[in-house]
Amino acid sequence: MNKLNPTQIAWRAAQDIADGAYVNLGIGLPELVARFQPPGRQAIFHTENGILGFGEAPAAGQEDWDLINAGKKAVTLNPGTAFFHHADSFAMVRGGHLDVAILGAYEVAENGDLANWSTGPNGVPAVGGAMDLVHGAKRVAVITDHITKDGKAKLVKRCTLPLTGVQCVTRIYTSLALIDIVDAHFVLREKLSSISLDELQALTGAELHVVGAVADLIVPDV
Amino acid sequence: MNKLNPTQIAWRAAQDIADGAYVNLGIGLPELVARFQPPGRQAIFHTENGILGFGEAPAAGQEDWDLINAGKKAVTLNPGTAFFHHADSFAMVRGGHLDVAILGAYEVAENGDLANWSTGPNGVPAVGGAMDLVHGAKRVAVITDHITKDGKAKLVKRCTLPLTGVQCVTRIYTSLALIDIVDAHFVLREKLSSISLDELQALTGAELHVVGAVADLIVPDV
Amino acid sequence: MDKTIATLREAVSGIDDGMTVMIGGFGGSGAPIELIHALIDRFVQTRHPTNLTVVNNNAGNGHVGLAALIEQGMVSKLICSFPRSADPRVFTDLYLAGKIELELVPQGTLAERIRAGGAGIPAFYTPTGYGTDLAKGKPVEEFEGRPYIRERWLKADFALVKAHLGDTFGNLTFNKAARNFNPLMCMAAQTTIVQVSSIVRPGDIDPETVVTPGIFVQGLVEVAEPAQEETLNRANAVYPEVVQ
Amino acid sequence: MDKTIATLREAVSGIDDGMTVMIGGFGGSGAPIELIHALIDRFVQTRHPTNLTVVNNNAGNGHVGLAALIEQGMVSKLICSFPRSADPRVFTDLYLAGKIELELVPQGTLAERIRAGGAGIPAFYTPTGYGTDLAKGKPVEEFEGRPYIRERWLKADFALVKAHLGDTFGNLTFNKAARNFNPLMCMAAQTTIVQVSSIVRPGDIDPETVVTPGIFVQGLVEVAEPAQEETLNRANAVYPEVVQ
Q1: Which structural domains are found in chain D, ordered by start?
Q2: The pLDDT value given to residue A120
Q3: Interface ipTM
Q4: Separation CA D24–CA D56 (nearest Å)
Q5: Nearest-CB residue to D208 (from C112, C152, C173)
């Protein structure tokens, strides 16, 4: 099946970030979003561990291990950075000061519920800042493959995995489509032209609503 | 009647402040305490508006009006000062980090209740930081004249004026005596040798208990 | 991105009738006198904004700054801890005449309520005020054997704040004890407007020394030599100046 | 007054069996490796302290620092947000064997609970975690139409913290993002012990740039060139070193 690679999903998500936006990117796939700021726009990236305005990864061997992001990867500084402690950092999050948080997902439900921190009772649970981010940012978006590796729907009617937050996600960027959550419904905004609505619906665990035109999801080779 | 002047009461209170103690002094009479640090001891003074370690008043004409205390009087800086915002300042207070707060009083009750912010419903009420200080400092002491200007007791059985805090005062430095509050009783520790216990009791609105020896309250001419 | 606003007039143009406005400062230190006066200028010309709820530690001193704002009749309610000053006549007269509402809040509770508003904490418990008149009607709860009262967050439509340096991203430093309520109010307002002595480029402020990160600031206006309330009052200044 | 402590050994000498110890850092950045190792040294010699409750964002990485403390069996309970790392074997094995208790707390809630402990706020409401497994058993309350859960403060007997500069009064600065939980833990512990790269005189730190005022610090020990957890782990270091 023709689908976007993770970098392409990240590219699409990056197009919706305004100039000057304050953005938190989850660990892993969401981190790719920072690579694709459209020309003329500069977002300011927040990391939970107390940096606003960090930059790209340093060259290997140039790491300063006191200058890391939430994923504990080394970063660099852009001009205009600020450092702060964890309580101030989460005041930014919880207080609604971030414009957007872009997170990964195990499951997203049509009512906006998100599950992205625990795959169940086995192993060691770890939550980090995800539960804070979903209730803090003005807009919570998810970027994810449309289905799991073994072909199950990740966009579902109700989450089966432990929740990260209730009714918090408003937009989902997948490998096949761009879907908004409106009034507890999935509303299809864009899809790859190579997939039909019926095919997409078959890969989605809850009804896809169409309100007005569905645009083609067009992404460059990145 | 022979009694201590305000400066002498302040001198006595200062003798109980340990080296390195963090101290908040209320506006007015308590401010005098800072003048009498015993030799070899250095207390660090906290002011609600965000300074730890301020020093004496500047010479007239040398004021920096961004460098003031809670009474809005100009101060100077000692080496080792820190500035911080109001929430951090009251975290110090409410969080129990101050060793002692020394406050003025309209009335103190034998159960430790303090009234020092309102003389009743007339005029404009103003509370400032007093209500925070009484519940924050490890030790809350009062310095006050023993009786009001018109001869009424300030040390009372129950406060009649609006309370600043309940059961918060543990020591009272007056113009005649030094009294601790223990298990909701006034316990007399020191008194001027020129006044008898009966005379002192007559000027006090609740019973003075004597537990062990009562020392002479001896203060230099300051 | 550049958060610079060209003029004081433009900086206060978004404040409408009935809004809640936090005004920084403790007495005169950290008080954004020029922003307040710009708001008065607008009122003198347009009769707006009015019916404001103002949050400040005090109630003004003399006839400049916050006192002048109150004197113009623009403020219908004041939330503060200490409405006394060397010259509190303006507030006192209106208050005793029943023409301005007062919500008196202990100073530490005021600071914490503002921080809570900025930090997304709708309510918290504090020992401050328990058993006093200022706790009347507030929920009480015991934790570990000690009673506490519940206080609510405080938020605002606008904050008018004074800082020292600000870069164009809105990162701020403050001058000495002029910090006080200013960084908290930056967090708690929908729109925070800051007057700074100097607007500098991103990178000109050491990231270790930023007190208020730019995320809490929406607009900056440069006032190179700000007036100090105490100095104005010692000169018996009145705002707006009475034209002879 | 001089809060300097001469040796690492002396700096950790007050920590007893069963105590709650906050340990600063986020992963390796800001982690007080030398203080932790001094505590391990004491345990190796005396079999104390043990049965500790440790508060940290993580659960250690590799076999140094916090991971080594856990590996020694000194920790009976961990309160953290993210017990995963590049090499989490030490914690994972003990946890899956039921030999260490875990209290998992969302990261922002963990930070706020620690700050609340330091600020005398016994409880507060947060939206974080509402409707999730981590909110089970916690009181829920609605404010302005939105549900929140109530969280309690977190305090400790000791905090072990890493800072950059410290003056003899205990005023501290931190290095970049090594700040993280450190200033909060300084507030929330009965006794805060700080390792700093350099102890300086009062006045050597600009009062505008002090991050943690000395009132929150009880003892300072100088560790001029502190080890970094990531560097140790890349060298496959183990603490205590196995003597051949």
Answers
A1: 8-130+153-230 (3.40.1080.10)
A2: 81
A3: 0.97
A4: 6
A5: C173
